[in-house]
Amino acid sequence: MIFRNVPRWLVCSLGAVFLCVALVATAGCGAQKPGPAVAGGSTELSTAPSAVPDAVADWARGMAVVRVGALPREARDVLALVDRGGPYPYRQDGTVFGNFEKVLPRQKRGYYHEFTVRTRGERDRGARRIVTGGGGEFYYTDDHYQTFKAVLR
Questions:
Q1: Does 44 qualify as catalytic in the annotation?
Q2: pTM score, whole prediction
Q3: What are the boundaries of the signal sequence (predicted)?
Q4: Which of these, 64, 85, 95, 150, could form a disulfide with 47 (CB 3.0-4.6 Å)?
Q5: What is the pLDDT of residue 122?
Q6: Is 151:130 a contact under the CB 8 Å cutoff?
Q7: How confident is the model at residue 44 (pLDDT cuts 50, 70, 90)?
């Protein structure tokens, strides 16, 4: 891995900057097509892969998607921690996610890292996680890696 001796907070910060630049570039400098109307006036995207707008980065195509604002409060808090580079409440946070379920696109070991999303009422870490990719991707699972949604930031 090329980031072997670089502090995790710096790698995460650079990943977040890269993601922002990529989103702006793919969105045509902020010009976006209007999204689909959703009952109740919500701007949340459907999780159906066919509802992914053209402006979504290639890594999210064909996946269920979720906007940050539609994530549970605890997941948004974890994203903020990742952006800041920690500190993380669980010792497993920031460790390599092996993608053994092969739900996410195949990458070399060390590409993905996982972070615990606290679940109220659970005695252990629960089933919810944020997984980050080395290219600035963010994924959310609420069923312990069985399914993932691409997080649109």
A1: no
A2: 0.64
A3: 1-27
A4: 64
A5: 82
A6: yes
A7: very low
